Amino acid sequence: MALDPPDLIRAAGAILWRPSTDGPEVVLVHRPKYDDWSFPKGKTKNGEHTLRAAVREVWEETGVWPVLGRRLSSREYEKERRPKRVDYWAATGNDGDFRPSEEVDRIEWLPLPEAEERLSYEHDADLLREFAPGPNHTTPYIVLRHTSAGDKHDWQDDDLLRPLDSRGRAEAVALAETLAGFGAARVFSSATARCMETVLPYAARMGAEIRTDWAFSMGTPMAASKEAGGRFAQLLADGVPTLVCTHGELVPDVIERACEVLGAEAPEDARLPKGGFWVLHTAGGSLVSAERHHL
Fold first, then answer.
1. For residues 178 and 181, what is the distance between their CA atoms, to the nearest angstrom?
2. DSSP H or E segment with residue 26
3. Which of 69, 117, 128, 248 is most buried, taking the most CB atoms under 10 A from its CB?
4. Are both 96 and 164 inside the same structural domain?
5. Is the distance from CB of 180 to CB of 168 less than 8 angstroms?
6. Has residue 117 been placed in a domain?
7. Which tens digits make up the pLDDT trace of 74-101?
8. Where would I find the Nudix hydrolase domain in this sequence (predicted)?
């Protein structure tokens, strides 16, 4: 994986949309400093995950708390003689409570043709044309590897009981806020302590029940027989937003089986670091977009 340039400016935003009788409308923001119209976006703060930045920036600029949907293409250009990359998602939200500020003094909800005419930059118009064909409504399926749980060789008890360490607990709290950007999801977890502790902050935040599933657990006959991928395929058939926390050894089989079921090509390397996660956005039984993240 190529490293980002050290002077890269990272930013994130979304095409925030809502349904109307004549098709979707999207929100554009007006920035008085530049007298331009664009999509809500902004720079990430130090140490801030790009998903969290996208949610925060949309909320700050529009007053709408967004729920992120499918991943859209990043836009790259030069800003003040430095490379800049903006990561984008499609997003939905309620009507919100817009309050003018020095950065954004007006917002407007516009049908797609009017929005394209109003946009000030061609790279934004290109992004809108990517969004337009849809599908707009997608269902997220998140595959999460548990966070840091120390060295298993130092744990003398049953490995099912090995807990998160202090770093892993902090990572689990950070994950709760990051994953909340995709809205509420049902939660399935390996029956191991480290997986259940990883999703506990998210479940508490979203008011979700944690359902343990032996198919996603290491050290069991079901996991050894690659039941994890088959079980995940069953969950895909439900069409319900879902978060599954499992182990690094099982992630490739889960992702490969999911791609097979969804009629998509599997990634060459589906592995995740601890605390990393895949988000598969689906619609109509097909894979719309896939994104991989780490803390």
1. 6
2. strand 25-31
3. 69
4. no
5. no
6. yes
7. 999 888 788 999 999 999 998 789 999 9
8. 7-132
